């Protein structure tokens, strides 16, 4: 298993809409993430800065690199583009976070 974390941002005033859209996550997108090897995916919001912090755990062998090219992911990005900073292809602007500490069972 591998865990990665990354930061995205919301446009001001869009926290509730972001939460609503994820509460209504398309079942086919959830399945595509699982099929790509995602076993846990959590997103946290810093309400003071509108920063989103995502933590994703996935299988060592995964298909995450194929998701951005899928029509489904393109649709999701377009669906989210109006509430968060995005690239011209509609993908959210994100920054990978560097791990600095881990406490795991041992």
Q: What's the layout of helices and strands?
A:
Blueprint: E1 2-9, H1 15-23, H2 27-35, E2 38-46, E3 51-58, H3 71-80, E4 95-96
Strand order of the largest sheet: 2-3-1-4
Domain unit count:
1
Q: How do the SSEs run, as a string of H and E?
A: EHHEEHE
User: How much helix, percentage-wise, in residues?
Assistant: 25-40%
GO cellular component, one term: cytoplasm
EC number: 5.1.3.32
GO molecular function, one term: L-rhamnose mutarotase activity
Pathway: Carbohydrate metabolism; L-rhamnose metabolism
Task: State the gist of this model.
It contains three helices and four strands; from the N terminus they run βααββαβ. The protein is an alpha+beta fold.
């Amino acid at each position: 298993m591998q865990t990665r974390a990354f930061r995205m941002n919301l446009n001001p005033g869009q926290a509730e809409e972001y939460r609503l859209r994820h509460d209504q996550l398309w079942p086919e997108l959830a399945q595509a993430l699982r099929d790509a090897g995602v076993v846990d995916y959590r997103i946290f919001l810093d309400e003071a800065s509108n920063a989103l912090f995502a933590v994703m755990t996935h299988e060592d062998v995964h298909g995450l690199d194929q998701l951005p090219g899928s029509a489904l992911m393109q649709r999701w990005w377009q669906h989210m583009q109006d509430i968060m900073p995005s690239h011209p292809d509609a993908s959210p602007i994100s920054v990978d976070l560097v791990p600095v500490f881990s406490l795991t069972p041992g």
